[in-house]
């Protein structure tokens, strides 16, 4: 396929028209008048059939489509090549960093390509497809990508939409070693590019890990809840933490976290790693009289454990409440979420509602959102999904 034309029209409401012209690229079901098409490349027109923009319709976890161009064009190899070239220019400084060898190359709508992200892992690329429509032009996108990044050693894809395709597969070049050891601010992390949707590290948290490793965790007893492969724990330990305790329900977290410590020259036996439900651990720690100077709370946006259901939007405040009894008299909480449906203002309210009246004082001492390689549009606040607030608390 040499190019993909927008040959259908989709009419949108006047309200949607205003958002589109103001630079918001996401199309929601309510934006569309008489929505019948799906998985199609389309011209978006207003209620009077005036041309507005070009893009596509494709069902995914965010809305039903994306605007890719506010001028008439063809979605050919040259179109995608230009997008990749612009994205690469923004990130030129990252390619000359010896201490960090994994970062984001294309951040979806932030780089004008809603529905796709591409990450760099020490010479390898990982492409995530979020809907069937963008996947239709996979070959075009791969050709364009390799035009801009001809030295790519190998490419993996993650299929994050409803499909019979594998969740992940190697699609080009050499296979990466397992594990592939990458560096981030001088710390090593073991990654696996062909294990499901996740690779072993969330690259969007690099600035938070660097903050921990650069002295913030020094001399502190650190509790890392929802620890996954223990990346926050490793960063804390490398930053001089007195001790680290990692807690995650997934059984894989134990060997994965041990591996992360080992490749950085830290004996895993010197750290505590628990495979247990997070809420059960809160009760266990309180019963045992354990306290921690720094508690990291970075849960998934939504999780189910048997009959228990957790969502950040409804239940994050409970995490804060459960943390307070096991927090030192003067301690810190790192409150983090990647829930795009929770605004910065709302997340701050949820945290502080739990602190008010329960502690002597609290102060917001540091905030983080997405790092610069995760480019976001100022006209699309939802795209800046990461919110990390660090509070100092006196109980």
Report on this structure.
By secondary structure, this protein is an alpha/beta fold. It is built from ten helices and 23 strands. The protein has helices at 14-21, 77-90, 132-136, 138-148, 206-216, 231-238, 253-263, 278-288, 312-323, 344-355, and strands spanning 3-4, 8-11, 26-27, 40-45, 51-57, 65-69, 75-76, 102-107, 116-121, 124-129, 154-159, 168-173, 180-184, 187-191, 221-225, 243-248, 272-275, 292-297, 302-305, 308-311, 327-337, 361-368, 387-394. The protein has a seven-stranded mixed sheet with strand order 17-16-15-18-21-23-22, sandwiched between helices. Helix 2 (77-90) packs across helix 4, helix 5 (206-216) runs parallel beside helix 6 (231-238) and helix 9 (312-323) packs parallel to helix 10 (344-355). It starts with a strand and ends with a strand. 44% of the residues are buried. The mean pLDDT is 95.
List its traits.
10 helices; alpha/beta; globular; five-stranded mixed β-sheet; 395 residues; seven-stranded mixed β-sheet
Task: Please render the helix and strand layout as text.
Elements lengths: L2 E2 L3 E4 L2 H8 L4 E2 L12 E6 L5 E7 L7 E5 L5 E2 H14 L11 E6 L8 E6 L2 E6 L2 H5 L1 H11 L5 E6 L8 E6 L6 E5 L2 E5 L14 H11 L4 E5 L5 H8 L4 E6 L4 H11 L8 E4 L2 H11 L3 E6 L4 E4 L2 E4 H12 L3 E11 L6 H12 L5 E8 L18 E8 L1
Helix pairs in contact: 2-4, 5-6, 9-10
**What Rg, in angstroms, do the CA atoms define?**
22 Å
Strand content: 25-35%
Task: Sum up the overall morphology in one term.
Answer: globular
Structural class: alpha/beta
The termini sit apart by 63 Å
Major pleated sheet: 7 strands, mixed
Helix amount, in percent?
A: 25-40%
Identify low-pLDDT runs.
Answer: none
Secondary structure tally: strands: 23
Q: Strand order across the biggest sheet?
A: 17-16-15-18-21-23-22
**Overall pLDDT confidence:** 95
- Helix tally equals 10
């Amino acid at each position: 396929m040499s190019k993909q034309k927008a040959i259908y029209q989709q009419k949108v409401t006047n309200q949607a028209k205003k958002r589109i012209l103001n630079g918001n690229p996401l199309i929601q079901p309510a934006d569309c008048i008489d929505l019948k098409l799906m998985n199609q490349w389309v011209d978006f027109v207003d209620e009077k059939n005036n041309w507005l923009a070009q893009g596509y319709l494709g069902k995914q976890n965010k809305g039903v489509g994306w605007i890719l161009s506010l001028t008439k064009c063809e979605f050919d190899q040259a179109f995608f090549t230009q997008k990749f070239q612009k994205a690469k220019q923004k990130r030129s400084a990252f390619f000359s960093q010896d201490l960090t060898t994994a970062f984001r190359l294309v951040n979806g709508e932030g780089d004008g390509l809603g529905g796709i992200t591409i990450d760099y892992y020490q010479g390898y690329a990982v492409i995530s497809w979020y809907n069937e429509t963008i996947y239709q032009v996979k070959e075009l996108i791969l050709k364009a990508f390799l035009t801009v990044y001809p030295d790519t050693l190998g490419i993996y894809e993650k299929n994050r939409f409803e499909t019979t395709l594998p969740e992940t597969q190697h699609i080009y070049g050499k296979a990466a070693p397992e594990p592939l050891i990458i560096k981030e601010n001088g710390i090593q992390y073991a990654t696996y590019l062909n294990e499901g949707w996740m690779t072993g590290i969330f690259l969007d948290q690099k600035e938070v890990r660097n903050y921990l490793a650069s002295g913030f965790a020094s001399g502190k007893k650190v509790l890392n809840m929802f620890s996954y492969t223990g990346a926050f724990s490793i960063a804390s330990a490398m930053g001089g933490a007195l001790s680290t305790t990692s807690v995650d329900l997934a059984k894989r977290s134990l060997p994965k976290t041990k591996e992360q410590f080992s490749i950085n020259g830290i004996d895993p036996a010197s750290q505590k790693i628990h495979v247990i439900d997070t809420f059960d651990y809160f009760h266990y720690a309180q019963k045992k009289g354990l306290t921690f100077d720094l508690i990291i709370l970075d849960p998934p946006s939504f999780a189910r454990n048997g009959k228990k259901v957790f969502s950040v939007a409804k239940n994050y405040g409970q995490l804060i409440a459960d943390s307070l009894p096991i927090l030192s008299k003067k301690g810190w909480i790192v409150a983090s979420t990647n829930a795009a449906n929770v605004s910065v203002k709302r997340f701050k309210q949820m945290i502080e509602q739990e602190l008010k009246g329960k502690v002597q004082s609290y102060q917001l001492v540091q905030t983080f959102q997405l790092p610069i390689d995760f480019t976001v549009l100022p006209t699309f606040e939802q795209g800046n999904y990461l919110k990390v607030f660090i509070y100092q608390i006196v109980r």
